[in-house]
UniProtKB/TrEMBL annotation:
Bias (Gly residues): 18-35
Biased composition (Basic and acidic residues): 46-55
UniProt protein name: MDMPI N domain containing protein
Residue ranges of the region described as Disordered: 1-55
Spans through the membrane: none
Length: 431
């Protein structure tokens, strides 16, 4: 038979000549069948020349796998966990096997249900991160003052939100909320109406910097924010539309650009009608209002919106904490403070009774709020109460969006002092 070997392990063919060739002569030239043939095997016969059936061709990049193996790979293929060669083999098989194709489709649909849908909305902080990266490589010739960066960041985030909404959403209803006379107050408007409100109130800062006032020739009853807003709304022949975005955006850019050239002008007074703030605090106040109203707009149009960065949030909380003693004194003169909580007067600069305000989470820290008079100094030795709040929750309390009774996560100490401080925080809000 083919492929037989003799006793010396040399292949031979019983039907043909001896492996050594001609007449079977052995070494030395003498004939004789007893001598073995050459010890070096002859080349093997090629499969193409042997008459055997050739195997099926395998496409480039694929591996030859059996049906059972390909079926077991369907789950890995649906999860995109196969190698490139295995994926090619499975996909070729799916074009030939209807049962496996149906199973692969079912598995791929199941994988789609396991994956969380990804939002197509850009991260609101993306612009800030890109600008920060650019400025690290090439610092600006005239940088924005540190105390103006929260306003720059929050107006940019709101502008990105406005860029994404459609024409119809500018007329979506929005309810402005604040706290007045120890009760919740509100005013109904639209998304465009909110931007008009920000335009007119930011105009107080613009006017203090010598920029044009958005009210123009409109006679406002008083420079207070609410009066300016109502005057602007009344003067509009039609409800504000998305056209209000352009003057608001131009004004925000003008304010940031101007304060960048003012140098050390952060203490310049900005009048709000019945009170004043230095320019650096007024810019923080406007950044806070921009974030609060951006959240109002985002809720109205179902848009994801994050709180400010921890650094900016901390500054907003610090501003509110510094304003609380003055608001407490105003409330005390007006009578809302509880009778048992009326403290004795303390000379300015001296320590007095204090409440420890502990802010947890983003932008957190601790502040000692003097309770006796605006000029008093907070003192840990004279601490009579301790209140713990989340940072964003405290800001929403100061914006009038959270009732004082529902705000504190933890309260220890003088109940009247705690109540006065929480209501004073809510009284910081306005339209």
């Amino acid at each position: 038979m083919k492929g037989a070997y003799d006793e010396n392990g040399i292949p031979g063919d019983p039907d043909g000549p001896a492996p050594g060739g001609g007449g079977g002569a052995g070494e030395g030239g003498a004939g004789g069948g007893d001598r073995p043939g050459p010890r070096i095997p002859l080349p093997r016969v090629s499969v193409e020349d042997g008459g055997r059936e050739l195997p099926d061709a395998v496409p480039d990049g694929a591996v030859a796998l059996e049906h059972q193996t390909l079926t077991s790979l369907l789950g890995a293929w649906a999860l995109a966990a196969c190698s490139a060669e295995e994926a090619a083999a499975v996909e070729e098989h799916l074009g030939e096997c209807e049962a496996c194709a149906d199973e692969a489709l079912r598995l791929r649909e199941a994988v789609g249900l396991l994956q969380r849908p990804e939002t197509l909305d850009l991260d609101p902080a993306l612009r800030t991160r890109v600008l920060d990266g650019c400025l690290e490589r090439r610092p600006p010739r005239i940088p924005v003052p540190e105390w103006a960066t929260p306003y720059d960041a929050e107006t940019a985030r709101l502008d990105a939100l406005l860029q994404d909404i459609g024409d119809a959403e500018w007329h979506a209803p929005v309810r402005l909320r604040w706290f007045e006379a120890d009760a919740a107050a509100s005013r109904r408007t639209t998304v465009a109406g909110v931007i008009a409100h920000l335009l007119t109130v930011d105009g107080l800062v613009a006017a203090a910097l010598g920029l044009s006032d958005p009210l123009g020739d409109i006679a406002a009853p008083a420079p207070a924010p609410a009066g300016r807003t109502e005057a602007y709304w009344r003067a509009s022949h039609y409800p504000p539309t998305r056209a209000v975005r352009a003057p608001w955006r131009e004004q925000t850019h003008g304010i940031v650009r101007t304060v960048s050239f003012t140098g050390d002008a952060g203490r310049m007074p900005v009048s709000y009608g019945d009170f004043e703030l230095p320019l650096h605090d007024a810019m923080l106040d406007r950044a806070f209002e921009c974030w609060v109203h951006a959240e109002d707009i985002a809720d109205a149009v179902d848009y994801p919106y994050e709180p400010p960065s921890a650094r900016h949030l901390n500054r907003m909380i610090d501003l509110a904490a510094r304003l609380l003693p003055g608001v407490l004194a105003t409330r005390r003169r007006a009578g809302p403070a509880a009778p048992g909580a009326r403290p004795h007067l303390v000379t300015a600069g001296e320590p007095g009774r204090s409440l420890r305000l502990e802010i947890e989470g983003s932008g957190g820290g601790e502040w000692l709020i003097p309770l006796d008079s605006p000029g008093a100094v907070g003192s840990a030795e004279h601490e009579v109460a301790h209140v713990a709040l989340d940072g964003v929750e405290f800001c929403r309390l100061a914006a009038g969006h959270v009732p004082p009774a529902d705000a504190a996560a933890g309260q220890v100490g003088d109940r009247d002092a705690i109540r006065d401080v929480l209501f004073a925080a809510a009284s910081l809000s306005r339209m």
